[in-house]
Amino acid sequence: MTRLLCFVLLVLALGLGFAWLADRPGELSIIWQGQRIAMSLMVAATIAVSLMAAVIFVWWLLRVVLTSPHALQRHFRARKRDRGYQALSTGLIAAGAGDAVSARKMLSRAKGLIRADQEPLVHLLEAQAALIEGNHDEARRKFELMADDPETRELGLRGLYLEARRLGASEAARQYAERAAETAPQLPWAADAVLEQHSRTGEWDEALKLVDHHKPASPEERRQLDRRKVVLLTARARAGLESQTDPKAARDDALAALKIDENFIPAGLIAAKAYLREGNLRKASNILERLWKANPHPDVGRLFVHSRIGDSALDRLKRAEKLEALHPNNAETLFAVAQAALDARQFAVARPKAEAAARLAPSERTFLLLADIEDADTGDQGRIRHWMNQALKAPRDPAWTADGVTSPEWLPVSPVTGKLDAFEWKTPVSEWQGPIENGAVNSAEEAIRTLPPVAIADRAAASVPAKKPEPAGEIALKPNAGTQAVERAGPPPATTARTAPAVDEPKPFFGGLPDDPGVKSEVHKEAGTASGGLRFF
Questions:
Q1: How far is it, in rounded angstroms, from Cα 431 to Cα 408?
Q2: Which spans does this entry mark as compositional bias, Basic and acidic residues (predicted)?
């Protein structure tokens, strides 16, 4: 387009020049060697322009003739290079698709058309073809050649890093990643690998320096860096708190993590524990209350309830009720109040709170808590077994989970893969139990009816020796002169149990039911009666 515009301007200038000369006629006379040459000015200008055009044409023709061999050679070289790049592109596509035969064929064609020292991608295609064929030794040699070339250093180091990871050589992988991070700190895989290695070895200071030096390129990357910084600060605070070398520094790290993410529960727990060690109950309670109000967590509730040393069970119940005021109508809140009420033996509070928690979010520990309440309140083994049975069928409790394993507390690094920030608070993976035929919860009466007979002592007659139960029905204990008779609470009328030795029933070879503790022998029964103790089984 530029050349066309210049040509148009040149023609326009010539036309204007000739028009200007035509409007101003004149003669040009030249005397040379006794000859006089006279012509008009228009003719002289035309001859001059024609001579210039002829000189330019002759020069162009001579230039074409003189440079044609080199131009022809350059043309064939460019055509050969284009064919080589086409073969290289096809080979890389075949290698990416896993076609080893086509990749090797295109590699041979590309090497015949392009010199490997002029095009580093030939080494990459060779390494990819070797990896597809399973020849890892050859692939490593090619990656080493690429690592020595400044143009392909990062690509070769990445290939060597992946090969070291495949072989389990963590130290070699760390060295390759560090070399790549030194030359190109913006590489995400190199920074992640070095950060992961520092995290595995507990070098939290070096890991934090690496995160601080990384410059985010997008808002999403900024959020990821903030999350990593929160985890690393919490990990360093946790290590400092456990070692007890500098609790104040651990507290400062945890507070710095909370400034970035105020709802990060592990950081809040560590900060609260550090304040409690300093005797600052008020600041610890403020942190725990803020966490609980945002997201109730059992670890937060447990630490808040037991944060004050020397509290009685009733005092702990009051602190649990304070949590309920902060976040009412929540399963975790109700569970915390029920647990504290059980410790205080306030069964009138514990039972309805636990049942409400079970209705909101049925879980294993909620039904186990109901079993504990039943055991402490009534001691009715049928009801206890009923709640235990519900606990077996209930969903598993959430826990700190990472890579299929659970931990009683949050950890910064997965013990399986060494990944940073792998632990999440979620329900662990459980085995599929099959289709549920009946989702209704069995009643306590049904659970008691299907249980084998057990001996139960009445709370009102705790000092009286226990009596033999009848094989069925709800039982009631009544003292009697001499021997004690066990009567049924409902119809038909009660019958007196005899003291004659019972006939041994045949036992199946596979034992009793999984939840059946069985009935102790007569020797154990007599020993229990003689000692006057209470025995449930």
A1: 20
A2: 517-527
